């Protein structure tokens, strides 16, 4: 197992290197350039230097006067030391800005992730047990609605109903106007209240895929010979479902859930932007629009690391869930 983990880690580092090179090349070709915007603003000041001279000066200051390959290795040299530079748009260290916004996204992602598991898996199993019944059709329709609804459309409906018409929740933000005057308990409840609509949006829009996936795998397992044998021996239906069948659908579910790990930290750009939650998704959207290459580079590399880590964790959990799985 340890040899397998070390091999996967080394392979992940190699993959991460080429991913970083590709991302850096794309960032250098972005149509939106902070340097060009800043040079244009500076050149319009009274008595200022021409636009071309500002471009040359700022490009040299930010390391853009060299080629993509040499510029990437210059960035990589700092990244190895966890020095990702200073954000052009937010005027502070990239890591400092990241640490101040990541927990908003983590709270939102964790809440929706937990709800997704507790809703999707039981409903998927129930639909499989009652195949072609009214319950199965109702759960299937609910899953298809969740898969088909765009998050921006569903979020807009929720905001219109519960914020505009009923006035139960605020339209934007994570705190109320009088948040600072509240007690610590009231502040926590205030933040939790602002997270209700974004969490519902993420949960409903993501619950359908896992629900259908669980149903399909459970149907396949329930038609297996060993399930029929267990029932023929008089094993209770509850034990057949919860012990024999459920254990055998865990591996494909773990595969799917392992890919959701980046979502706990990488943020939901559309949902956070619609509700103006100052998480990593909304912050990255602002950085992309402003051509903030240092911050966008860090965000993309961070997401790539999470994806590789999620795949590694999934592979390791295979052996934990199913003793038949052995890694040579």
Keywords:
single chain, 328 residues, mainly alpha, MetI-like fold, 15 helices, 75% helix
SSE order and pairing:
Elements: H1 2-28, H2 34-43, H3 51-61, H4 68-80, H5 94-129, H6 134-148, H7 151-165, H8 184-194, H9 196-222, H10 225-232, H11 237-258, H12 261-266, H13 269-275, H14 280-289, H15 293-321
Helix pairs in contact: 1-15, 2-3, 5-6, 5-9, 6-9, 7-9, 7-13, 9-11, 11-15, 13-14, 14-15
Query: What is the CATH homologous superfamily assignment of the domain at 97-289?
Result: MetI-like
Strand count, sense and closure of the main sheet? none
What top-tier CATH class of the domain at 97-289 fits best?
Answer: Mainly Alpha
Q: Give the SSE order as H and E letters.
A: HHHHHHHHHHHHHHH
**Backbone CA Rg:** 25 Å
Portion of residues in beta strands equals under 5%
Oligomeric state, counting identical vs distinct chains: single chain
Q: Structural class of the secondary elements?
A: mainly alpha
* Helix count, DSSP H or I runs of 4 or more residues: 15
Q: Percent helix among the residues? A: over 70%
Distance between the termini: 7 Å
Question: CATH topology of the domain at 97-289, anyone?
Answer: MetI-like fold
Structural features, described:
The protein contains 15 helices and no strands. It has 328 residues and is mainly alpha-helical. The protein has a domain at 97-289: MetI-like fold (Orthogonal Bundle). Helix 2 crosses helix 3. The chain is globular and about 90 Å long. It starts with a helix and ends in a 7-residue tail after the last helix.
